Structure formats: C-alpha cells, structure tokens
Amino acid sequence: MIMNELFKGSVSQLLKDAKDKKKSLGVYLKDIYEIHWGENTPPSDGEVNSWDKSLTNLLDLVHSIKELDDIQILVEYQLPSKLERIDCILTGVTKGISKVLLVELKQWSNVNTTNSIKRVEYEWQGKITRCLHPCVQVGNYENFLRNSHSFLSQEEVEISSCVYMHNLPDNEMEKIIHSSFSHIPIFNKENTLAEFIKDKFLNISNKSIIDNVSDGTFLYSDDLLKVLGEMLEKESQPFHLIGEQ
Known about the structure:
This protein has 245 residues and is α+β, with helices and mostly antiparallel strands. Helices cover 38% and strands 22% of the residues. The protein is built from eight helices and nine strands. The chain has helices spanning 11-20, 25-36, 45-63, 134-148, 170-176, 190-200, 207-215, 222-231, and strands spanning 7-10, 72-78, 85-94, 97-105, 112-113, 119-124, 127-132, 157-164, 186-187. Strand 6 (119-124) and strand 7 form a beta hairpin.
C-alpha cells in the first residue's frame, strides 16, 4: 500500500504506539519510513533528530490540552512532487467547520535576515545555511493545497498555517517577524501555541477529515507543478536535513 504520510491518526495514538514499542518517536518513525519509503533513500540523521525533538515537543504540547486529546494528525505528508513533505497537519472541527492546520517545525536557536524578506540564514555547528523564510515555506504549501487538492480546495474547508520554533529565544524571534507574513503566526513558546491551537479546534472527533486530506487527489497541470517547484526552490537540498533544521 502506498502511504502518503508516515502516520495518520490521533496524537495520543502516535505517542502510545512509540511508547509501546519502547522507542523514541524519532526511531519509531524511522522504522516506518524505512519500511514504506526508505528503499532507496533512508531518512537522514537530521530528520530523525527533528522527529525526536521538534515533533515530540509539539505532540506533547497538544496531548497536554485536555480538550484536544483526540485531535487527528498527519505526519510528513507528501506533496505530489515527492520533493517536499509537510511536517505535520492537524485536523478537527469547530462549530461544524472542517479545519486543517499546517505546522512547520524548526529547531533553530538563531536566525538572521538576508537582503530578501523571503530568505533567512541560520548557523549550526559553524556553518551558515540560507533557506526560505519558514512562513514563506509553509505558506507556499498552503497555497498549493488550496489550489490543487480535491478536499482542501473546497470553500467550506478552513485551512491555515503556523510555524513552531521551540528553541528560538525572544531576541532572535524579533528578527524573523515580518508584517508581510502576519497571517502566518510564529511561536516559540508552548503556552502561546497551545492557546492558538485550542482556539482553532474543539474536541470533536471527526476522522473523515483526516481521511479526506490523506486520500485526496491532486488536480493540477504540469504548469502548476512547475510553479510548485519554483515556489519551493531552496538553496539547501530538501529532506537531507542538517543539525537544527
């Protein structure tokens, strides 16, 4: 069976599955990756590190919200180009409205601006890496899904995005906030992100939404796929994550 994501289900179930296997979340997802996707390219150490730290941090945060103990999540959702994956997608219902939240995770502890508002730089182990501003990155994912996904392109579905940078100090956060991206909030504190997520969702289990996202088809032309590639063009190679990415 072809998997469009590494995991589909509730946040509590994912945490339980890893615990039952007596593995860290990173190692647990690494095993799934190698079974379903890793025939040619295994996950990098950076990816596993990101699952162990950033993703675990997010899941623990969501799981701590009693009102959202059954919220549904997709982890590493693949876009059709297979060159990009969305870190995680939370789904739920509020007042009868299907809601979908894309979350971009970064482990960065520092960041600097560049001569383009769409690009930033961060340092890890003495190496400077230039990449897309995380709000631009996740905003591009959102726009592509809005315009091409059979379920997410429907008007009655509310799709939005945010960025979670749990290691970034407040003084570094000031560098990355820009009015052009004010519609995509960036969080570096658990309590503010928790409140944001609580405001987005109510504890109404609706597994049809996550199934509709996972099983949805992409209605795109070759031109649109080309635009996706151009939108997501980076100076660093996708998926071969290093250090704090």
